[in-house]
Amino acid sequence: MLRFLTERAIGMAVTLFLVSIMVFVIMELPPGDYADRYAFRKYSGTGLTITEADVAAIRAELGLDKAAILRYFDWIGGIILRGDFGQAYAFETSVNSIIGEKAWLTLGLLLVTLIITYVVSIPIGIFAAVRRGSAVDYGLTVFSYLGLALPNFLLALVLLYFANSWFGAAVGGLFSAEYADAPWSLAKFWDLVKHMWLPAFVLAWSAMAYQIQTVRATMSDEIGKLSVTAARARGVPEGRLLLKYPARLAINPIASTIGFDVNRIFSELPIVAAVLGLTELGDLLLKSFLDLDMNVAGAILLLLTVVIVVMNFLSDLLLAWLDPRIRLGG
Amino acid sequence: MSATEDPRPETRTERRERERRERYYAASQWTLIWWRFRRHRAAMVAAAILGLMMFLGIFAEFFAPYGPTDRDRTYVSGPPQLPMFCDHNGCSLRPFVHGTSTVRDPVTLRAVARPDPETRRYVHFFVPAEPTKLMGLIPSQTRFFGLEDGEKLHLWGTDTLGRDVFSRTLFATRTSLSIGVLGVLISFVLALTIGGVAGYFGGLIDSAIQRVTEVVRVIPIIPLYMGLAAAMPKEWSSTQVYFAMTLILGLFGWPTLARRIRSQLLSIRGEDYVLAAELAGARPGRIIANHMLPSFTSFIIVDLVISFPYMILSETALSFVGLGLRPPAVSWGVMLQQAQSIQVIEQAPWLFIPAGFVVIAVLAFTVVGDGLRDAADPYGQSG
């Protein structure tokens, strides 16, 4: 078990290192650098003439004239040693102060989304497998096709429209206007809960469709096994029998794909955030890509990926705990 | 010809049965797959829908009555005009639409097109029109349908600039599907190379490649695409952006297929015929392409078809938020950019028609992929 743990932990570290290089490359990709943009923002409209020398001076001041590899180590060193993601140029403040609270909101949203996904998909998947070929099963197949085919931003728009016409009030965003900048309180938290279900449902949509199919497929395989027949012969009540043998195994593939689901959810986050007017990392990521504020964008991309990698690790652990074959074989 | 020793002459049904069997035993793998696929009714329907979409997209210049950027200033944000056969003045065999007249909205003072139920404009087929080039190559002066004497028919209404939604949707179909095709092709070549090298050589090379694959798989794909798309210079022309987009989509679409190819190659790496080819002096590239790949080509094709929807959805999502294709290029995502708010759903729901195309295309690709997967499985039920 210890060996299994260390192996996975080392693998995780290597992956994170490579991810950080990749993110850094993406941050470096856009043409021009911050010195140009900084000079433009600061002096445009002032009537002053900017020379190459001025830009070069700004560049030196910001430390942008160093070689890429040095800048990479500055960047990653700051993150690892001090938790400092550098300057956010578009907002003229530090990345940390922009991301700060939003990171927790995003994590909260992710958690709610995951809970919705599994609470819905596991029982429904089991039910569909037990009632194979029924109208419910058929309907679920159609739903799972739609889960892939209906782009989530479209689903978000449609739900927004119906929520608007049924509930009247605007349901977009994560907070009502009066709570947006208010300090945390019970009332604000309740406001958040009231707003969170819609984005969480939209984000859970395709993961749900996918997982229902997975649970249904594994469950269908397991139901035909001899262990089930044997238990039935022993007279174990049908409900307990289903939970104890096939359902117990049908959960394994879900445990092994948690990281995959998180990846899917984060992938859809920026688009859904744009439609629903959410104010968390996905929305910020999109805005900073559009503004080419690459320090913010890179920091968010890195954070999202770290969450995914950690979730992958946790899912490995969970699977090893659920399935002794992996624990002992690995 | 037949090897039967039976002196009794064959009856017609017997001969038919024998021929059916001979066909079955003589059929190549691809014929068998096609026979099995043909029996999958949903997949056949989906394939037909895709075929139709591609056909409409390829010949968009012929089927679309107007160009993708032509503006009709007399019919801005106009609702769809559905051809009808009957109105309160009686019926006609030739479909027609009502004429419109432009009036000013008393409140907003905007020019609004209002249908005039007394005038009729008849729909004609194969009408002469301004010269265009089919697929940019073949000169043509005929359009599939249109109204008499230069009046304009907006089957699915117009957008806020007075551009015909139907025409734009057809051109968008061409763009979106072709981006999918090119993206899939690029990622296919990459997957083949990367998966091939990893699976054939194994060992250290394999572990290194596996690490890189892991990294590409672990970064959320749409944010990754966004980062690359954001790096495209703003002054690029829409054609440059188009090709850059296909590259971006293709560049990171390979991991799933590469893993599949790798594991398949690893599993047949030790077969005798591979060793035989090696002893005969064949080089790795030839062994992979000529000896190993054919044993699982059908699976690769299935995976390719299944990866289409992701390409199309990614392109749509990126263009939708303004990081993908840019006007004047027109794709489903670019069109949907105009439909980002609830207000649009309320005031101009026809701007959502391209979304229907996205859903149908993705569904069709998925169903065809499923059908192909069942058909390509030699141990499937309907063998």
Note the topology.
The complex is a heterodimer of chains A (330) and B (383).
Chain A: H1 2-28, H2 34-43, H3 52-62, H4 68-82, E1 87-88, E2 93-94, H5 95-130, H6 135-149, H7 152-167, H8 186-223, H9 226-234, H10 238-244, H11 246-250, H12 252-256, H13 258-276, H14 281-291, H15 294-322, H16 324-329
Antiparallel strand pairs in A: 1-2
Helix pairs in contact in A: 1-15, 2-3, 5-8, 6-8, 7-8, 7-13, 8-13, 13-14, 13-15, 14-15
Chain B: H1 12-26, H2 29-38, H3 41-58, H4 60-63, E1 84-87, E2 90-104, E3 111-134, E4 138-147, H5 165-201, H6 203-218, H7 221-230, H8 238-251, H9 255-268, H10 272-279, H11 284-292, H12 297-320, H13 332-336, H14 342-347, H15 353-376
Antiparallel strand pairs in B: 1-2, 2-3, 3-4
Task: Pick out its properties.
heterodimer, A: mainly alpha, two-stranded antiparallel ribbon, B: 383 residues, MetI-like fold, four-stranded antiparallel β-sheet, 4 strands, flat
Summarize the structure in words:
The complex is a heterodimer of chains A (330) and B (383). Chain A is mostly helical and 330 residues long. Chain A is built from 16 helices and 2 strands. Chain A has a two-stranded antiparallel sheet with strand order 1-2. In chain A, α6 packs across α8 (186-223) and α13 (258-276) runs antiparallel to α15. Chain B has 2 domains: 81-153, no CATH class; 168-375, MetI-like fold. Chain B is built from 15 helices and 4 strands. In chain B, a hairpin with a 6-residue loop joins β2 and β3. Chain B is flat and about 85 Å long. The mean pLDDT of chain B is 81. The chains are: A mainly alpha (330), B alpha+beta (383). At the A-B interface, α1, α6, α7, α13 and α14 of A face α6, α7, α12, α14 and α15 of B. Chain A: The chain crosses the membrane at residues 9-27, 103-130, 142-163, 296-322.
